[in-house]
Amino acid sequence: MEVAYRELTLGIAALFNDPVSGRGGLPALDRLLHLGQYALGVPGMALSELHTTGGAGRVIAATGTADWALGRPVQPEVVTAVLRPGPTTYRVELGAVDDEASDQMSSLGSRWILLHRIDLVGRPPALLGAFMPDDRPADADQLAVMALLGATVGRLYSERAGLPVQSTGDDLADRELFIAVTSHELRTPVTVIKGYADTLRDHWSQLDDKARREAARVIGQRSDELARLVDRLLAASTDTAVGTLSPGPFDLVEALRHAATNLPADLRRRFRLELPERLPLAYGDRATIPNVLTELATNADKYSAREETVVLSAGNDRRTVYFQILDRGIGIAPEQAHQVFERFWQADSGDGRRYGGAGLGLYLVRKTIERQNGWVSLRPRDGGGTVAEVRLPRGDVKRDAHASGEA
What we know:
With 407 residues, the protein is an alpha+beta fold.
């Protein structure tokens, strides 16, 4: 541990001199967790940022065997169970977290969690967890590593270096942004529809049949876009956001194949399916899969060059079934990976934005999936581009749990 601890201190010093991670935010957290994982000799680490209200949180950084949890909500009852007064570093048994997460961590070789509470001035604490591979208690060197990692994270928060990554929940700002976004995004389709309608009205006799059909096609296309945008705005302005769900076990592979056939024609041409023949059943609302896939695929299409392929893949682990949308587009900055799921968030703002959108699609995807006890995350793809991942509980596991009275 002595050598690893020395390398950790040198790694932290190098972190602050790096032009990317030195600015803080998620790149710094990700690098810190990799350094800590190596220094501690553990299979995985994760950091959860707690909300300012509600006593809940979200996993915002994860490495090793914990990477499956990236983006996963941390429920208030879990926060209550693991937060303790007194020493900032302490042991937490897997049973203190929810059953699904406990089972998943256990299947990946974890026996307990070495938790460090990072107390932040003016904010709820953040929680740093190392997933320990055996039952031996933490030694003095391991406690020192956790303390150093926690102090470094605390410094990044105190300097507001790209943190917190989650929304502050400013209702007034949300209302002002709602007005700005809707006025900007509604203007374009309305202007196009009016322009083509005026052309048909004023120049009908001068247009040939091909021109009339093209004008009607554009009006129909833009009307569909407008209707979809209005639906998003109405959904995002309510607490429920996604309406009533009807969860149950379903075949995710079949649902994805069917949903892919209904994607817009231009997108289908660049869409490649790399799906397995079968997966364990997922547990959720099958009817939401087409909308979720369309939003994520459209997002990948929007930020990718026309010649690049967008890939749809899927898989499973012990507790979840998941699918991924992989593109070779402009990518996602690590510090923006969680912000993109906030309501009305845009990577580029103002009238000079290169990419359209109201900043609602990914927000509604997150709300839809989380109401099914799943979660969604975005991360940079190795070699360039973005990976969007959606995870849902396994349907066979959930049914077994209900049958045994554990759920």
